[in-house]
Amino acid sequence: MLAMFFWAFVVGGAICVIGQLMFDVARLTPAHTLSTLVVIGAVLDGFGLYEPLADFAGAGVTVPITNFGNTLVHGALQEAEQHGIIGVLTGMFEITSSGISAAIVFAFIGALIFKPKG
């Protein structure tokens, strides 16, 4: 069990280091960095490499932004097998809608409870 925590920390930390290097060394904007990490997650899932990495590192790869790309591709491929080309679009929206909806609802509740600065 301790090894599971260790590898989650190491792999998740490595993803964060890559993102920080993209900021500092490559001088990418936050939008470019986030987009690149999402695409990396999507490409890894497209080649079937994200699932074994998630089995190995657990929360180290399921929590960072790379998992969003993985989720998009995974849902699209799953629905494409069942419904064809239209499944590509519906699969992406179906599998990510709950997470996006939760983020919107919790952000709204947070804005109601706390006084925003600005």
TrEMBL record:
* Membrane-spanning residues: 6-26, 33-50, 95-114
Which InterPro entries would you find in this protein's record?
A: Spore_V_AE (IPR014204), SpoVA (IPR005562)
**What keyword terms does UniProt attach to this protein?**
Membrane, Transmembrane, Transmembrane helix
Note the PANTHER family from the entry.
STAGE V SPORULATION PROTEIN AC-RELATED (PTHR38450), STAGE V SPORULATION PROTEIN AEB (PTHR38450:SF2)
NCBIfam families assigned to the protein according to its UniProt record, in alphabetical order: spore_V_AE
Q: What is this protein called?
A: Stage V sporulation protein AE
